[in-house]
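Model the whole thing, not chain by chain.
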Amino acid sequence: MDILYFLIPLGLLLLGLAVWAFFWAVGSGQFDDLDTPAMRVVMDDDSHPADAPDGSHGSDERQAPDR
Amino acid sequence: MATLDGCFHCALPIPANCDFTVEIDGKPKPVCCPGCKAVAELIRDAGMTRYYTLRDTPTPGLGRPDATADEWQVFDRDDMLEAFAEREGDRASASIFAGGMYCAACSWLIETTLTKTPGILSADVNPVTHRVLVTWRPGEIGLGGVLGVLSGLGYKPQPLAPDADARPELVEQRAALKRLLVASIGMMQVMMFAVGLYSGQFQGIDENMQRFLRFVSLFVTTPVVFYSARPFFAGAMRGVRARRPGMDLPVSIAIGGAYLASVYSTFTGGAEVWFDSVTMFVFFLTLGRFLEMRARHRSVDRSAALSSLMPNTVTRIDADETRVVPASQLVAGDRVRVRPGEAIPADGVIESGTTAIDESVLTGESQAQLKRPGDAIVAGSVNLDGVIEMRVRHTGVDTTLGTIGRLSERARYARPAFVQLSDKIASYFVVAILILAAGVAGAWYLVDAERAFVVTLSVLVVTCPCALALATPAAFAAAGSRLSELHLLITNGNAVEALSRATHVVFDKTGTLTRGMPSVLRVTLFDTGLDETRARNIAAALETASTHPIARAFSKPSAALAVSEPKVVVGEGVEGIVEGRHWRLGSPAFVAADAPDDTEIDDGATRVFLGTDGRLAARFDIGDELRPDARHALNELKRIGLDLALLSGDREPAVKRVAAALDIRDARARCSPKDKLEAIHALQSAGATVVMVGDGINDAPVLAGADASIAPSHAALLAQTSADILMLGESLEPLVTAFRAARQTMRIVRQNMAWAIGYNLSAVPLAAAGLVPPWAAAIGMSASSLIVVLNALRLSRFEAPPRNDRASSAGRIASRPGRSREPLVR
């Protein structure tokens, strides 16, 4: 078990590195927005209107009465 | 989520006979106006219809575009770039406040649309502060272009001066995140070492290894205690200095005591260390504080709230030329021209021109005031129908509007001395523990001086008010997350307790119980053969020329008629030629020479007459219509034992009409913000706990002065900043839910308290006798905390009271025969 005397300090060193990296990330503003990134994964642009499958876009150009 | 009875884009009810649709994903969706149609089509054509499925339920009316796109062109000028943007080589960046953002889907929509716009290099949206940091190439697109894109999406952009961009929320959030991370990582590491130590207790452990693990735990725990837990120590110090020890004191004593005991144990080779308990405790509390902070940050930015009422630009009259300048550049003494429909940019005096001014946001008075040269006008009110020139007296925070902001801040600060239940109990508890610990120390000193210190510390650790400290925050956090699903956003946790004790609910009439916009209540036809639909259409055509708020009552015609030679006569009405005949709409004297005196009982409605060739043809009664579910919601409130009152700044007849329709006995009209605040203080000193529901700027101080306050989400931004709870959506139903949920929450808090105190009381004697083995103390402490948390989680299954469906529509004002169709809002 003597290896623990080496492994635990090594673990703590890595831990220190991780904390330092996180502090740097927070300081550079990477965690300022906690809401949007969660959505960005599921939100992707739809297909562009040009390659819409049925070409239905643009058929609705029946305009509303002018004001 | 986007399935609504109202407009597909902005969720406002769709007016009768209105037929605008947008085709989304091959299906036609109804929208309420050409503006919403344009925005929805823009979003569709940019390939971002996903916005509609991912956004939260929209607040009705939000995102509805303004018609004035030309306003942004002035921002293309170089001096505007100078004032609002920072230049760096060939790129410029500016911070823009995007009014009307309400969920994460909004920030996605803004970012994606802006970055797709040619010339814009990057756009970062901060949903917490509603600010967009845009970087663009001035050669390719102007600041005005950027603002135009935002405005085109239905948001209300405001460029912010670079120095206005201090963001305390961000600083606070960053610090809290760091603390949370240190606590969580520390907790995990110490837990690992603790597993080794605990198994060592049972299986035997090499003495050197035990000491080593203890020292490592000490090494990891130290930053958790001195960095993550620092706010608790600071809070405890403040509490002690103010002679009102709160929850922070027992928490600090528990953390500090357990830590010091463990350190002592580590250096002297004692029986037990409690580093795992310390870190876990700090982590849970820090997490609780973090969630609380996030809720608080959802409330609205005060500086942006104030400026949202001011125009972005003003027309300043220098010596002999006029210049359009940013409103922030105005100083006292400037001469400014204000056109109809524009907001007054500063406090001042009219120098020339006569106009009607809508001061409803400031006074609650729903009728426009006629102002002449020499009259004082205030910033934030709206110029309705005449061109005026004014001399600026006060700007920015010195205006009446700024004063109201400060007043509400102070009222909030000077809130009735409010001690949380848990704090009250905690104070006694702390004193009891300290006396007990001293007693134990003395007793053990006489019996066995060697063990006195260790036993005393173990008493302090066993009584660690872990469960007690978690009892309230856990319940509030669970209630908060459930309530946001039920359309209630809590920005101040303390409000829950006040809500549960509430005895009186005070309403502000304008916009809270009513829709807050004029609509035609009744049409009376005179004997000219004109039918009602046609009368409405003619009136609508004439009003297209007008910026008067009354015009909005007519804004939804069933068929658009063309009007020629429209003319606005200040203070009288409008006239124009529709289908070959000359029509007038306005006061009776303006419309017809032989107009009858208006001798009918004044019921608060504004009367507008339509006539042609000097003869009256129709009379429109225009007023603020009750919300469809107001009656049902108010009856529910009465049923759960609350007294209702109405304090309005509006005129007597209008207030009486609403009070009678809703059966509110205590109704007062013409209340100034000061009157309202005094009325609330009077109730409070009589022992009542007052909850205020209001939405106007003039309500801000009152909202802040009440024990708890609720604002609908369409309320003025300033009112939102002062409110403890925001009610999302158009319905008043969440109001009832709020009271029920608050009572349920406090019931759970009391259960938790009883459990935590019971556990501690039974554990203390054993610990004092030196009988509690270390592992039993650890299990007991964790189990009691776990039970508290699980009990709190029951709140996340809280159900809203069943809706009394369409029956609530009976709550409308009964006498309205002329109304053809009633759009029901959900």
